[in-house]
Design a protein that fits this description.
GO molecular function: mannonate dehydratase activity
EC number: 4.2.1.8
Largest sheet: 10 strands, mixed
CATH superfamily of the largest domain: Enolase-like C-terminal domain
Low-confidence stretches: none
Protein name: D-mannonate dehydratase ManD
Pfam family, one: MR_MLE_N
Mean pLDDT: 97
Bound molecules: 2-keto-3-deoxygluconate, magnesium ion
Radius of gyration: 20 Å
Order of helices and strands: EEEHHHHEHEEHEHEHEHEHEHEHEEHEE
Helix content: 25-40%
Strand content: 15-25%
Structural class: alpha/beta
Keywords: Lyase
Number of domains: 2
Shape: globular
Length: about 400
C-alpha cells in the first residue's frame, strides 16, 4: 500500500492551521495536524521541502519504521518544527491504518480503558465575579473540571483571560503585542480567587490553574503552598521546564500537583521530570510531540512513575489533533484529563469530525481511522494570515517568559 500523494494544506478558518493529507495507491486518505502556533510556515516548508519527497512510494503500513526514518534519518533530532512534521506523518498513517482495518484508531491502540474522556473547560474573566459566572456555566453544561484564570489588579492584560465571550485566541497581530507582568501582584491575588471559587463550588469540582511559565521554582513553591487549602487538581507550567531539576525545589515545598508539557516535543524533555516524580501530569500533545506513536511512548514511560496524561488542547491545535488525542486518551491506562476549548464554527466546518461532547466527557469517533477530515475546497477559501503570539515584559521592561 504505497503512498502516492502528500499534500500540505495551510488554511486560516478563524486561525491558521497546517494539515498533511496522505493518499495511498488504493485511494485511502489520512490526515495529520502540523500546526505550530506562530511558526506555521516553518513546519509547512519542512514538510513540503524535506518530508513529502521521502514519503512518495513508501509503504503506508510501516508506521514505526517511517517514524524512525524521519527522526533518525534527518540526523538533526527533536525540536518543535521537526517533531510537528513527524507528528503529522505519523497521525496520517494511523488514520490510514484504521481505515484499512475498518476500526477506529483507539481499537488499534488496545481498545477502551474508560467510557469517556474527562475534559476541562476554561473559566476566565477579568474579575472574580466574572469567573464564578463562567465556571457556573461550565458546571451547568456538565463539566467536571474547570481551569480558572482571572485578571490581576494593576495589570492590564493577563494570560488566559478572554477579551470577550468566545474562543480564547492569543495569536493576533503579525508582530507580537507586548504585555506587562508583575509576579508580586499575581502571587498576591491568585489565592483569594481560588478561595472564592472553592467556596462557591464545594470540594468536588476539579479546579486547575495555568501559570504559563511565569515563576521561578521558589516562587512556584510559594504559590503551590498558598493554593493547598483549595485542593487544585493541578498547577500548570509553574516554571519554565528546560531546567528539569529545578522542579525538585517546587516539589520539596508543596503538595499541589504539577502539570507540564505543552511545549515539550520529545520524551527527553520530561525524562527527569517523570523519572524523579517531579510532576503529576504530562501535557504534551500529538501534534508537537511526534504524533500518536511518540506520545504513547511518553505516556507509557510516565505510567511507570504514577504520572498521568493531561494533553494540551487549545484551539491552536486543529480538530485533527484533538481527534487523535481522544483515541489515545480513551485507550491509555494512565489518562488524567484532556483540555478542551471548542473550535470556532468556521474551523469545525473546514475540519468535519465525529467526536462529540456529552456531560463533561468527549467521546472519540467510532468511524474507521481518526474520524476527522479536511474539506480542501473550503480550506482554500481561507488563506494564511500572519499572526504572532504575544511577548511579556516585567514592569521595568525586562523580557519575561510568556
Ligand atoms: O499556542 C500557545 C497556546 O496553545 C497556549 O498558550 C495555551 O497555555 C495554553 C493552554 O494551556 O491551553
Ligand atoms: Mg497552558
Amino acid at each position: 500500500m504505497r503512498i502516492v500523494d502528500a499534500r500540505v494544506i495551510v488554511t486560516c478558518p478563524g486561525r491558521n492551521f497546517v494539515t498533511l493529507k496522505l493518499v495511498t495507491e488504493d485511494g485511502v486518505t489520512g490526515v495529520g495536524d502540523a500546526t505550530l502556533n506562530g511558526r506555521e510556515l516553518a513546519v509547512a516548508s519542512y514538510l513540503s521541502e524535506h518530508v513529502v519527497p521521502l514519503l512518495i512510494g513508501r509503504d503506508a503500513a510501516r508506521i514505526e519504521d517511517t517514524w524512525q526514518y524521519l527522526y533518525k534519518g534527518a540526523y538533526w533530532r527533536r525540536g518543535p518544527v521537526t517533531m510537528s512534521a513527524i507528528a503529522a506523518v505519523d497521525t496520517a498513517l494511523w488514520d490510514i491504518k484504521g481505515k484499512v482495518a475498518g476500526l477506529p484508531v483507539y481499537q488499534l491502540l488496545g481498545g477502551r480503558s474508560r467510557e469517556g474522556v474527562t475534559v476541562y473547560g476554561h473559566a476566565s474573566a477579568d474579575t472574580v465575579d466574572g469567573v464564578l459566572a463562567r465556571a457556573a456555566d461550565f458546571v451547568r453544561q456538565g463539566y467536571r473540571a474547570v481551569r480558572v484564570q482571572t485578571g490581576v489588579p494593576g495589570l492590564s492584560d493577563v494570560y488566559g483571560v478572554h477579551a470577550g465571550p468566545g474562543v480564547y485566541e492569543p495569536a493576533g497581530a503579525a508582530v507580537p503585542t507586548e504585555a506587562v507582568w508583575s509576579t508580586e501582584r499575581y502571587l498576591d491575588h491568585v489565592p483569594a480567587v481560588f478561595a472564592r471559587v472553592r467556596e462557591e463550588f464545594g470540594p468536588h469540582l476539579k479546579l486547575l490553574h495555568d501559570v504559563h511559565h511565569r515563576l521561578t521554582p521558589i516562587e512556584a513553591a510559594r504559590l503551590g503552598k498558598s493554593l493547598e487549602p483549595y485542593a487544585l487538581t493541578w498547577m500548570e507550567d509553574p516554571a519554565p521546564a528546560e531546567l528539569q531539576e529545578g522542579f525538585r525545589l517546587i516539589r520539596r515545598h508543596t503538595t499541589t500537583p504539577i502539570a507540564v508539557g505543552e511545549v515539550f516535543n520529545s520524551i527527553w524533555d520530561c525524562q527527569r521530570l517523570v523519572s524523579e516524580q517531579l510532576v503529576d501530569y504530562v501535557r504534551a500533545t500529538v501534534v508537537h510531540a511526534g504524533g500518536i506513536t511518540h506520545l504513547r511512548r511518553i505516556f507509557d514511560f510516565a505510567a511507570l512513575y504514577h504520572v498521568r496524561s493531561g494533553s494540551h488542547g487549545a484551539t491552536d491545535l486543529s480538530p485533527v489533533c484533538l481527534a487523535a488525542a481522544l483515541h489515545l486518551d480513551i485507550s491509555i491506562p494512565n489518562f488524567g484529563l484532556q483540555e478542551y476549548m471548542p473550535h470556532a464554527e468556521v474551523t469545525d466546518e473546514v475540519f468535519p469530525h465525529t467526536y462529540r461532547f456529552a456531560e463533561g466527557y468527549l467521546h472519540p469517533s467510532e468511524e474507521p481511522g481518526l474520524g476527522v477530515d479536511i474539506d480542501e475546497e473550503l480550506a482554500a477559501r481561507y488563506p494564511y494570515k500572519p499572526a504572532a503570539l504575544p511577548v511579556n515584559r516585567l514592569e521595568d521592561g525586562t523580557l519575561h517568559s510568556w
